[in-house]
Amino acid sequence: MSKSPVACLVSCLVRIALLTVALTAASSTAFAQTEFHLQAGKLRNPFAQKSVQSLVLTVQQASQWKLGDSFFFLDYVIDRETDGFNDRDFYAEWYPTLSIGKMQQSDASLGLISDLAIIAGINMGGDAKVLKFLPGFRASWDIPGFLFLNTDLTAYIDQNYGVAKSGAPKEGHSFMFDVNWAAPFEIGSQSFAIMGHAEYIGSRSNELGSRNDASILAQPQFVWDIGRAAADEPNQLMFGFEYQYWRNKVGTDDDENTIQFLVVWRL
Asked: Residue 189 is part of which domain span?
């Protein structure tokens, strides 16, 4: 007897967690930074074409290990309307990498590119039963002022459960280009940072016979280190906002343009 879509998603999450732990534990030089985010603001329901007051709780972790690094986040979304969209839903992404320079134990830099890596992303969603695989390559850039600056080019391979299983429609395969960064800076005695990512996903067809146009999702965040300002405890508590622009949100032709209040607690 086959597993239900929800059981498959849970099983996949467990395997990801176990593999992440195994990879991190394999290196004595492993490093991990965990953050909890709270975001509040209006998010767009593209199917109802209206914006609804929403709350997003996020746990994310960036880690480094002997042969590469890893970034994982899990969003839990709640909104004020029970309409089948963002009703206590979750969404997660995981991006482990293998550094070519670290695997070869040599310098893989090329001009402003400090390293090249193989990346293997996984995207998954709860209610929509979304599942995507994103194998590809990453270039890490050495640019003054940036804590990190990466450009990722990956395939966007669909493994959705489909309409027959009450999920998002199955789609054709496509590609994704993503830029992700963090740039800390100071003004006087105060510490700030601009961080986030912007991605472009190519158009693709779906099982309903229609075509999903290419999408753009940009989520830059601006934060102030309130922990340093108020208690001389830097890099622990930050306040700020996230600006979200999403063209053709979740495969529709509806666009989102919104600002959310943001609190970051960093362990």
From this structure: 5-266
In angstroms, rounded to a whole number, what is the distance separating the alpha carbons of residues 241 and 39?
Answer: 8
Which among 105, 179, 125, 127 has a CA at the least distance from the CA of 148? 179
Query: What own/partner pairs with CB < 8 Å and gap ≥ 24 does 15-24 have?
Result: 16/72, 16/94, 16/122, 19/96, 20/63, 20/70, 20/72, 20/94, 20/96, 23/65, 23/70, 23/96, 24/63, 24/65, 24/70
What is the reported pLDDT for 9? 46
In which band, very low, low, confident or very high, does the pLDDT at 29 lie, cut at 50, 70 and 90?
A: very low
Q: What phi, psi does 235 have (nearest 5°)?
A: 60, 35
- Residues in CB range of 63: below 8 A, 6 or more apart: 20, 24, 30, 31, 32, 33, 69, 70, 71
pTM of the model: 0.85
Please answer whether residues 193 and 235 qualify as being in contact, where contact means their C-beta atoms are separated by less than 8 angstroms: no
What pLDDT digit, counting tens, does each position of 162-205 carry?
A: 888 888 889 999 999 999 999 999 999 999 999 999 999 999 99
Q: Are 227 and 190 in contact (CB under 8 A)?
A: no
Number of residues in the chain = 267
The CATH number that applies at residue 237 is 2.40.230.20
Average pLDDT rounded to a whole number, residues 32-41: 93
Q: List beta partners, residue 216.
A: 200, 247
Count of the separate structural domains present in the chain: 1
